[in-house]
């Protein structure tokens, strides 16, 4: 059975630790804040599909340094912070063997670059997920609704045949466990579909401390503004060759948010992060799109403004965290 | 001696109450939160120019309803919230006689419209001020540095001769008191010079919880972004005929902020407001510029994004204040 290392045991990592346990895989999770809880009590999952209160006891380490070895598969389930130092590729290096496949279950655009640079010969599997899971307390994960979508493909989309094989094996593992997984010949299209919404809603809601519906209600111009931002992302996606991403898709996405006006609405992840003073996936979600825009010379004046603003907020919170840490206010 | 009503006795209103007391004017101030303090103890001013701990005892009312009458001059020194209900013109109506001059000591663009509509025959004096005054506690005002600039002119710039006369009289009162005041034939130019900086820095700093220098340090793109926003305001000013407002002016303004990089920098008023959960002058400072941009069909994609974001933040804080008020957490 395959030996699998899961880097990041929040909601997503814990969910797939559960799923892959079903096929008898030898699983070790790399935990940070929840290390002690998972070490002592394992990981409990509440899921409408996989049962309530199901406990597993995978191997647990606090760092990949403690998981040196030639793993068959590493799932990266942490948030994506391209440009972070040390990078995740640097952190997982001790666990990567010559044939280790690395699956990235993360949001954003251009997040694969660092992994490809660090491990040019290893299979890199790029994944988009729609999975409403939350770690409600350390080691206890709640799968809130019966939604489980995993879209995967190789990076780059035309890799050596062995990389395609690794991608197929990962898909088969998930399916054998009873889970959902669909292979796409160009998974970047799936990433662009997700980011076309995320690159606009995430920073706008975080900057305004508003859910999607509350933002739409905030002024007569808000609806047009968010649409204009999404259309900039659409133009970038189209310049990349993704003509499937168009204004109709934006309208469909917006209509869902418009239908929520009058209710509390939905809060994207970055708004949760800003409320908690946590680091936001600014580079992966907004910066990655702009990197493509600049390469293809697609003007994105609105997205650039939003990027600079959310980047400055992220830096502002980073200063606060540094001060807190230097005063020993946090235990981290 | 003239009878003068001062609407809004924060820093600016209190400062001019002091100045105009010197010429023996009969002054009444309309106080809100500091009513009790000013009623009992008067207004104390600490100023490098006008002395430390100087106390005056003007008339004090809590509403213009208590100041019914044919005042010679009303100084509006509250923040500018065009579109507010009730409007300041509605509030001061009981105090406005057929010849009462109304001087607006407020920021922004298009703030005079409501007054002209309500009082089409009264002299309206539009003023730009640079005056670092703060109410450090109720009824005690600190003039922090020896800066005192009052730029004034009629609204509109070509009014009946009686309105020009009222403007001259106001200037002369200030000068007689030993203060600074300069009449401009088109004071709107002075407003545009101030707003070209304010419309960019105010919301950007408020949205990012950063001083000007901290924002400039937040990413390699921040400098270009704030300049691009200012250049949009410049284009609107130029479309209004103000060719004096140009890229050179923007560069000069930006170089001051750049020189502050490495230090804590300056915090514009909207950042203070957002920290205190207070209402921000979004419509006066950003909305007023956009109103002109739309009239003149000048594209302002960046400023529109910033407007929608800061508007949504303002609404978000308004919801918080409403909840607080309905729970009786505030005394207001």
Instruction: Summarize the amount of helix of chain A as a percent range.
Output: 40-55%
Q: How many E-type strands of chain A?
A: 12
The mean pLDDT of chain A is 94
Largest beta-sheet details of chain A: 8 strands, mixed
Succession of helices and strands of chain A:
EHEHEEEEHEHEEEEHEHHHHHHH
CATH architecture of the largest domain in chain A: 3-Layer(aba) Sandwich
- CATH-level-4 superfamily name of the largest domain in chain A: NAD(P)-binding Rossmann-like Domain
Beta strand % of chain A: 15-25%
Write down the overall geometry of chain A. Answer: globular
Level-1 CATH class name of the largest domain in chain A: Alpha Beta
- Hey, which two chains have the biggest interface? A-B, 30 and 30 residues
- What's the end-to-end separation of chain A, in Å? 36 Å
The number of helical elements of chain A comes to 12
Radius of gyration of chain A: 20 Å
Structural class of chain A: alpha/beta
Q: What would you call the quaternary organization? A: homodimer
Low-confidence stretches of chain A: none
CATH fold-level assignment of the largest domain in chain A: Rossmann fold
